[in-house]
Queue: 2 jobs
Job 1
Amino acid sequence: MAQILLRNFTRAGNAALLTKGTSCSSITGTSAEPGSCQLHTTPACCEIRKLARLRVVDNSDLGKRAMAEGRPPRCIHVYNKRGVGLIGDKVLVAIKGQMKKGILVGLKQKQRIKQPQFDSNNLVLIDDNGSPLGTRIHVPIPTVLRTILKEKTLAKGADYTKVLAIASRYV
Amino acid sequence: MNINVRILTKSVSQQYAFKRIVTFSTKPTQQAAVAAVPQQQEVTGPSVRKPIVPAHYRFVYPEFLPDPKIEWRNAIREKLERLDMLDRRRQIELPEFYVGSILAVTSSDPHAAGKTSRFVGICIHRERCGLRARFILRNVIDHQGIEVVYELYDPTIQKVEVLRLEKRLDDSLFYLRDALPEFSTFDENMEAEPLEEGAPVPINDIKVVLRPRPWLERWERQNLLGVANIEQYIKDKHRKSAEKVQKPWEKFDLMKQYRATIPEEEQKEIFAEVHTELHTLELQRKRNKRKRTFVKPKHLA
Amino acid sequence: MLRTVLSDLARLRLNGFVCSVTQVREKGHLNRPRLRNPYWFMRKQRSQTDDQVTGENRSFIKEVIHDTYGTPALIKGVQTYEQKQLIKTNEVPVSTEPWTPAVRRCGLIARKIGQYPLWLKNGERIRTTLLQVVDNHVIKYTPPEEYKPTQRPNVHNLNRYGCILVGAESTNPAQLTKEYCGIFRDSGVMPTKNLARFIVSPQAALAPGTPLNVGHFRVGEFVDVRGKTVYHGFQGVVKRHGFKGMPASHGVTKTHRRPGNIGGGGEKGRVWPGTKLPGHMGNRWRITKGLRIWRINTKYNVMWVQGSAVPGSTNGLVYIYDTILPLRKPQVAPPMPTLYEQPEDDAPDDIWYEQVHNFKDESITYKPE
């Protein structure tokens, strides 16, 4: 069972976890030293699909606690037709036993020319109306989100532009 | 003819042969680039009457050399491509830079508030040729690693500044993704550090410290020079498998080198065609720079 | 006995001689029209027997060629000959009928010389393929009444279209057969390496010897490009049809790249026609339709067309036609029957479509809202 969990963890492939020393050791701590941990090291699948682990980058209480405990949210649904999340897409995540919605604000996947590619898959938690749970995003977000979220706002009725308002920086 | 020359030179001295081989990707030669440039001039001095094109042009303007794959080559297409590149270079200053240099790219962005965006970062990779030439910048902003791909001849790019002109020990620095974040963190408001005119491009021999495994790639197989602690994380099985995939004979494979590169004679032809134009652009840039430096103290006063 | 047999034979012979009735058995089988190749399908290359020609004679042959067709010259980036005596048909014919969307114009023979990106004025990057029109000349025009194609067209199209034979890439006639050179005799054009047939309306007829260049098409119009796709040889289903293959492990033996099941049993217990199976891949004539011309270079006769899906390899031959897609047909009349006037000397080499960013312009900026 533990083996399966570990495998799932690497397959979801979130290096952001690994940048955080605490979370890394809390997960791999069961096995041994970092050099000899029993994770298999196939290249990470960078797509956001079901069961992909994400990194909450806003300062919502829920998100902060989840990340601090080393139990990052898992994507359990992508609200688009392809089932693979792209930048600005809404996803449903399982976080600390709850189901929350979130917006993808940074991806590890290959991006288009001149659009930034991040080292982790970043998520901002929102409620059903589109307003964010936190009050600040502490990493840069791509400028293309301004256009994407504005378009989605018109289409869906929920107001996603509040996410843009809490951004600290654009790249 | 070219092979003959190479074989001859090889027989004279292996090292010498390597420095004469001219690469498109500058894979084996970029380390040897600095060493090769002065030696090249020595070599060409007596044999050729006048070295019209400076020998370092192929490192400064690598994208002017076409893809060496013979099936894709066509003289007219390459010529048209070069003309377009020169047209673009007349509009915008595209400075000399290498993998490992720190750049600041200002591009127009329809999504940004001010309709422009500026990104500072270290160039970790440079690839492709002609109008497709592109490079990847990497930086860590707010503890978040970010990479952006830019195309060199993209007309939405407004300005390319070289903040620090230097090289690294390797041809591509993808291992910075697995290194500690401080090795790819650069200040956004960094001042440009001008290099003295005519000085050789310095090689930064910094060795980066990698994070523990799992890595994005198997760095132990790639014979990286710019990594400090790779031995710390690999085990005997990794060492063995890395040894297995090594291809030490490839450096003796002259035919492979020949296919992967543009022959020296053709390089000369290509650069002879664009040299005068590039040279005038360079001079113009220098003149502008001098003007700028002359103006500056007035402002301060 | 013998006598009767002989008389019978004689009678038979006599009968055949007198009645001359042809056998009607299996008439339908024989009556099918034979596929005849067009008359210009013939052996091109002459077998080379250079050892019997002395050096003097060789130079004499060269002299004769230069006298008849002009000296070798690099015209618009293509190695050819100055065919000055050909340009006799350069004057514009008095066109009687104007262009209508139903008119079929002549096409061009081109070489695909590579691909590179262009940018639109809104900053978008487009991939383009470069096609160089190589030294095209009209060889012959066959009017509709005389044009008898191998496969007869539909009845309502019968005798509506003529045929223009176009040649590209002049070459040394000493290397070609006498019969092949005979095709070019009436036009006065130097024998060419490549020939192509274009079905045209009689309004779009061209006189033999007319040079065709890239000005035949205009920037912003749409074209169809026909070429022979890259040959891959006999390929399996993974490469040929993009099948997934089967797993590498988990007990799979000897079926990693095989198609697997190819059909059901019972009543349908056979291989259905059209089943995707291994076979020859590529080397087929394919037409990519509706490609926009983004840019034209009149100096080198090059046009930039949309996309990288033009069939054929780099440096391969392609044929360019006006598009047949009804919504992409030109709204205003294209040059009819072709462009005769030469571009002025001070005209720029490049003609850009209005949406495309010219590299000579300044960088693209966006206006703040």
Job 2
Amino acid sequence: MWFLTHTWILPALMALSFVLILLFGKRLPRKGSEIGVVAVAICFALSLVTAGSWWNHINSDHSESEHAAGETLGTGSAVAAEHLEEPDPAAFDDVQDGCSRVVDEGAVGEHTEEAGHSEGSDEEHSLALTPGENASGTAPPAAGASQAEEGEGHATTKPVVRCAQWFPMGLEGSTTITVGTMVDGQSVFMLFVVSIISLLVHIYSTDYVNGDRRYTHYFAFLSLFTASMLFFVLSQSTIQMIVGWELVGVCSFALIGHWWEEKPNSDAALKAFLTNRVGDMGLLIGMTVLYFAADRSFSILDINIMAAEGEISHGLLLLASCCLIAAVMSKSGQFILHTWLPDAMAGPTPVSALIHAATMVVAGIYLVARLYPVFFEGLSIAGSSVNLLAVVGATTAMFGAFLAFVQKDVKKVLAYSTVSQLGFMVTALGVGAWTAAMFHLFTHAMFKACLFLGAGSMSHACHHSFNMVDDYGGLRKIMPRTFWTFIIATGALAGIFPLSGFWSKDEILAGTGSFVGAEGANGTYHVMLAMLVIGAFGTAAYMTRAIWYCFFGEYRGHGEPHESGPRITIPLIVLASLGAVVGFLNLPKEIGPISFPESLHTQFEQFVEPVGRYFPEISHASFNIPLALFSLAVAGLGVLLPYLYYWKGGLAPLRNLSERNALARVGKTVLVNKYYFDWLYTDVITGFVKGPLARAANWFNAHVLDAIVNGVGKGAVLTGRFVYDNIDQEVVDGAVNAAGTTASETGGVLRHLQSGRIQQYAALFFAATALLAGVFVVAAG
Amino acid sequence: MIGTLALLAQQATEHSFDTPVNVVFYIVAAFMVFAAIRVVTTDNIVHAALWLIMVLAGVGLNFLLLQAEFVAITQVLVYLGAIVVLFLFGIMLTRAPLGRADDLDNNMKPIAAVVGVLLTAVIAFAVIRTFGDDRLTFEAYSGPMAEAGNNRTTALANEIFGPQLIPFEVLSVLLTAALIGAIVLARRD
Amino acid sequence: MLLNQFLLLAAILFSIGVYGVIVRRNGVLVLMSIELILNSVNINLIAFSTYHGLGGQVFALFVIAVAAAEVGVGLAIVLLIYRNRRSVDVDALDELKG
């Protein structure tokens, strides 16, 4: 329990490591890498212990609620003491006071009723729910119902929430921004994923970037990234989430541009950063909407509870989820904001493995999963057959897989593969298969990190080239360890039984609930299933192609490649073994006639999935043997076709198809040009703003505005002249002259608006401000 | 003089007898407005700097009337002692005409006058309607002062080095940055 | 003493400062006018601090410090302009002209 309330140690440790590396790294014998490795190793150990504590926590929760109450830690020791005395049915007694308004209200009601201490006074602000009212159920009926239900000892997994006040906001501090940790299965498992991948990447990097001119700087940023990611994962409030989100973005920027002396690298870093800004607008707007929707609360727990219990209107939730989906699209590389992710491969390979495959890019997935009630209710996921999240995910899953097929660069193949696999996760969330998404995140982190590190190992051997078509080939015999680990990870990615990818992908496919005989899914997403199956086929195919180019045939590069050292191969072996076996963590309850004992099946689900007021009631698709066989067959076909094509030289009609068939040529051109997204962004949009739009604005400025201003003057003078010449001068002489000169002067004055003199602008500015303020002052009265 | 004024101000809050303070205020205020107008209209740069001293001193007196002695003293030290001297150096270093000069103003005097009057009118309207006849009570000082043993400066110090410590430290960083920036800008190279 | 008498004095000083900023051609004089504006804000801060606690006085002190920094940097810029163009005429700085 101590570890669950003190998880802040993990990010703090990594942040400390960052500072230490920056301060002393250069003077140490190993240039600071030892600090990073030790810190992340301790982090990993702590995350294991935390996972163990969480496991105990769930089990004790399930057995007896009294027990858990006794262990409550919090600053208010008096409150904890109250808890000790009577078995408290409150579902959230592990939530520290002040961290969640909704939970506090519930707790206050019971405390004051039973123990009569005066805790209520400082807790109930404007909400002013008196204890009696709350207990007797004027609180929203759903709240009462679920509380009562949980009180009877239903299985609930309680998040352990701790927070400290960051700063008060609003009049008289009506909203307090808190910073803290929210620990539940989801965050504990992410702690594990982040720390293990980070540890292996640290070890790998000590060899891979050895001798780099910014070696110390590199390790400092790895530490900072790990700290930020852990901070993000443990977020207790949405503000904290935004901070963590941006921090990982900055680290990603710095690490992509690690070798910034070369222009493409710094361009890629900038592209990643700027593309993410687009999505960040969505993030900010979405979080703001949620803040107001949840009655001015930043607490994730509050937002989730209110969304799950229907206290927030559907329209608001829809708006918030659409905005947040924009954020997911940029951070998690979903169409149409995915273009930065392949370019981000300009960074060092371990960075790609850590940040752009296993951890940072899943931040978007994590965000959706964290605020799942918002999306579940907002997008009406249950009982539906299409929604924005699923469409975005499925599109990405399918088209990303196509793109991976035409890449020459092995890292680009893996990057598009990541895009596609992230699409799988987003689809899973979109169709309500929450656990499947988390499970796929978990397995994907393992095997994709392994693939990236394997690609790094090959480039290490082949003179830092990633071009598998021109510089690789025949590495099977030269680099056996890299080869075998790569093969295993590929199998897992392609979804070959019984490797981990098979289980997680199958859960997602089943979760769409549209295959014949599907049971227990939330909706029926036929289109998504079809697109995902195509994506799965593509995955198997492009990975087989990559394997052919890398490991088979003749060596096409120059020099003598060699197997990498142990600091590179050991992480590979660890990740490949994990990628092979972690699929068994979430075995289904039964596969046809075989049913597994309780201690074996759905362990991951029990560990990770929250049960309680802050999570929607989602149902789980059951394992479907025909679907599993079908997806296996699809994957097999995806392996078989490239096998025939490359190894056996078969499928002759397909050879050079793009040179003979116009349709195929068009298709290939489109794919090679990445669906023209980059062209659209740089040439069309930016080019338009930079070129024609700016020129048009300039022209408009120079011709239209000036012409109007001058024309007013000149026209009026001319009119004046005309009138002067043609109408009786003696009658209207004075008037005409006055009109002419006034207009001329007006024109002259107006023309001076564009003088470039700052003081004139200042005069206009102050005048406009005064007028506007005047309007407001009058309007306010 | 400081003691006398502070005493007067204190009396003004404790009793309804505040005519002397008001008299002091209006004299000072009228002089300040006059001096300020001279700052922006005089055709002698050095005179403008000297009139600026008058305005700044008047502001300091206002601070005294508002029972903010420490700020008043800081005002005198920093503004009159340092900033005005800086201005005089600036005038000399840029070889500004030391006597009368005809080209100190541009041709926007009417617009600027309109803007100024407009601003005054809007602010005055808003202020008068919002605060009406609110009297200065100084009640907000009583709590911190009692805590600090009836010493206003101690109370202010408690405030700076308590709740406002971080802004204070940030400010010192800002000053350092400005110092370096000024050196970088002004040095010949 | 009324709160308003201080606020109104501050308003007048502020407007005079704005007038100076708009009208003056000499860079040093523009900076002086800005000092007028800053001082009027200080009067407001102190007047309101009698209602809301000592934070206002602390802020006035901060403004004084920032003003000192501003004058330092501002004069450095004016000096630089003078060195480059042999004049501190703000009117001549019309590179922004479209």
